[in-house]
């Protein structure tokens, strides 16, 4: 039986990343039709942890971090065929091992709101976001 390999990768192949986003349902909230934007997302993340099975990307944790205070986990995607096997939790664990002093922060996809408390993450009620500068008053 094949083993899932978890590793830190310096970059992601754009087509592989798009495929795992689509296969995880995260594509509903990511610009998968804009390859240049996805490419920038891959190139500008400074911590990428992957899960591969026989070389195929089946999961990814893509983060932006300063490694000591804050790690923003911007994408946690696991191919739906491999969900509920602990892969997402392991990707978070591997990310946290690399940034042990940093708080790991993420915005949950609507379908995953109940997942994060189950694996031990705490909810924070003081998060804000801004999509368009025109919304600033």
Strand order of the largest sheet: 1-2-3-4-5
- Return Rg in Å: 15 Å
- Annotated CATH architecture: 3-Layer(aba) Sandwich
CATH class: Alpha Beta
Structural class: alpha+beta
> How far apart, in Å, are the first and last alpha carbons?
57 Å
Structural summary, described in words:
- The protein starts with a strand and ends in a 19-residue tail after the last helix.
- It is 27% helix and 26% strand.
- The protein has 137 residues and is of the alpha+beta class.
- It has one domain (4-135): Aminopeptidase (3-Layer(aba) Sandwich), CATH 3.40.630.
- It has helices at 14-24, 35-44, 87-98, 115-118, and strands at 4-9, 47-53, 56-65, 70-78, 103-105.
Summarize the structure.
This protein is of the alpha+beta class. It is built from 4 helices and 5 strands, in the order βααβββαβα. The protein has a 5-stranded mixed sheet.
SSE arrangement:
Layout: E1 4-9, H1 14-24, H2 35-44, E2 47-53, E3 56-65, E4 70-78, H3 87-98, E5 103-105, H4 115-118
Parallel strand pairs: 4-5
Antiparallel strand pairs: 1-2, 2-3, 3-4
Helix pairs in contact: 1-2
Primary descriptors:
single chain; 137 residues; alpha+beta; Aminopeptidase; five-stranded mixed sheet
């Amino acid at each position: 039986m094949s083993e899932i390999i978890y590793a830190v990768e310096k970059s992601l192949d754009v087509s592989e990343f798009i495929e795992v986003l689509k296969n995880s349902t995260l594509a509903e909230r990511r610009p998968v039709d804009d390859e240049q934007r996805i490419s920038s997302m891959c190139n500008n993340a400074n911590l990428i942890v992957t899960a591969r099975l026989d070389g195929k990307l089946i999961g990814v944790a893509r983060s932006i971090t300063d490694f000591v205070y804050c790690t923003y986990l911007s994408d946690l995607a696991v191919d739906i065929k491999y969900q509920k096997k602990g892969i997402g939790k392991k990707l978070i664990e591997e990310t946290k091992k690399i940034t042990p002093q940093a708080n790991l922060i993420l915005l949950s996809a609507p379908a995953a709101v109940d997942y994060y408390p189950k694996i031990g993450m705490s909810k924070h009620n003081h998060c804000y976001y801004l999509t368009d500068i025109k919304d600033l008053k």
